[in-house]
Amino acid sequence: MEQLIPPEWFIGLHWSVLIGIAAAATYGLMNGADWLVHGASYLARRLGIPKVVVGATIVSLGTTSPECAVSVMAAWNGRPGLALGNAVGSIIADTGLIFGIGCLMAVLPVDRFLLSRQGWVQFGAALLLAGLCYSAFGWQGDAATLGREVGALFLTLLIVYMIMSVRWSRQRLRGLATEPDASVPAPVALPGPADLQYDEDDPAEAAPAAVAPVPEPPPPPTAAVGEAKKASVAWLLSLVVVGAATVVVTSHILIESVSELARQFGVPQVVIAATMVALGTSLPELVVGLTAVRQGHPELLVGNVIGADILNVLFVIGASAVAASLPILDPLARVPHIFLVVHLPTMLTVLILFRVFIWIACRQGHFSRWMGLPLVTLYCAYVVIQYAVS
């Protein structure tokens, strides 16, 4: 991800200038996240698609595409090892850090339709990646790589996944069209004059001339729904694209400026690598997810985490492996086998824990706040281990 904004641009700048750049980047980052979340939520209303589905497709694609482009360029430029580490690290950060913090902030809703489809694709893609990596290491030893045939397989599965996502969305729309609206109360049948018994000899019980019909309560109009209906799909899509681009660019400017500021104040390089670099790979998804929760759209967070995990395997690793074979071991690292002994086991542990929480949440109807604590703790332990072996 560091090639998107060259670090050389910030070297030698005065600390006051770096603080100003960081402040401006933070302001742009927050505004970009607001544009992305507003555009995605209005687009969901405009198209009649659940927000969790928009989060799993459009939002996750917008926040993952720049990372895919950078990983592919790194593979072309002779640094293919970045792709595997970036993709697996992003999965751990998305599920452990971002979803964990989201759970701690609010009770997150459960969408059984998405969790029973995209949720299993997320888990299956990670299992496939881990199985291929361990199989390649067992077969090829220290020279193990994920070749172009693996990349072609992942890209083929990506096409299948996108086709199935469209079909699932259509099934979802048909299901929503046939379901009654729970927000509108059912009309109550009131007795009419013919249904009542009257004593015609008693003037006090004379039958009324007519019973006025009870009007049905209109659905409560909201400003958001009105704005969503007025805005065109093209405008909302452009808002999502501009918001995603702003989030990605400003997040990297923020990370590079703060990293250079830390160097000037004497912070050790290894500490910067274990914190700023780790945060930089997941900052766009983190800001977008927390903004969605803060604005009352937690479904976008759930969908974005699941969709981003799928795309990190099928899209980022697939496209990078097609560009160049990806080495599983890093001979320049202090622990060359760190990907096999730290990254992959942590990814599998986080996703297994996530599946357990999905099972609990489907039974109780929501993700509880306490579920965020073990996920965030696991992510912090992962960062500490990376710092220790660096």
Broad shape: globular
What count of domains describes the coordinates?
1
**Which strand order does the major sheet show?**
1-4
Structural class: mainly alpha
Low-confidence regions: 180-187, 210-225
Proper CATH architecture: Up-down Bundle
Task: Tell me roughly what share of residues is in helical segments.
Answer: over 70%
Estimated radius of gyration: 26 Å
Largest sheet: 2 strands, antiparallel
Give the beta-strand count. 4
Give an overview in words.
The chain is an all-alpha fold. The protein has one domain (7-174, 225-389): A middle domain of Talin 1. The protein contains 13 helices and 4 strands. Helix 2 packs across helix 8 (233-264) and helix 8 (233-264) packs across helix 10. It is globular, with a radius of gyration of 26 Å. The relative contact order is 0.23.
